[in-house]
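Pair request: fold both.
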Amino acid sequence: MKVRIALAAIAAFSISACTTTAQDTPAQSSVAAFDASAQQYQCDSGETVAALYPTSDSATIKYQGRVYTMNIAVSASGARYVGEGLEWWSKGSGSGSAGTVLEHQTDGTTGVALEYCTAR
């Protein structure tokens, strides 16, 4: 009888040790924090862009579920950031400001505009 109780207790403990609770992974937490603190843009296509500016020389944008790290680049007007094959060009600040996602060519030139967006 004591053996059965001991085996039942061991089995119960083993099963409870295998269960996990639903918790955010570090990646999920960092994405949620990014989304909460970023400027949100709604694009004409229905796509969204979230933009953060961690330093005066950099931007981080989330576009189509991917996060892009960019560095500031020369622009005649507004702020232009380049990195990872894309450009993020913004003009103005706050609600109603404009943002454009463009391809960035390997020769350093601006390519096709992918999205035209407005800050919410």
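--- second member of the pair ---
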Amino acid sequence: MASPPTPYVALLIAIRRFGFDTIRRRGFRADGPEQFVDFQRVRESRARNLREERPSPLRDKVLPRWALVRELHAQGLGFRLIARYFSKQLRIQVSPSYLRKMWRELGGENGQPQP
């Protein structure tokens, strides 16, 4: 003999019927091919937006001072200390990993962009 569902189980069943998939954590339910096409268009639009990256304001602040980064790195300072220098002296909050990423993109020591 089955007992009546607890309020929590009843809530989960109602949410699932409404369209929120609690297992896959998706907030939609594909009702038909039209809705699937709509979701496909949304995904394509998001992918297109990723390709067309907008310029970074932080990059615009760091690039004019890139000669300073190269000089400090040539003196043996790591990116962590360079980031701290930028924070304290220049009032620019930049992470060491972002400086390392830019270092690789702009060619680092040998002048060649690294993959």
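Observation on the second member. The mean pLDDT is 79.
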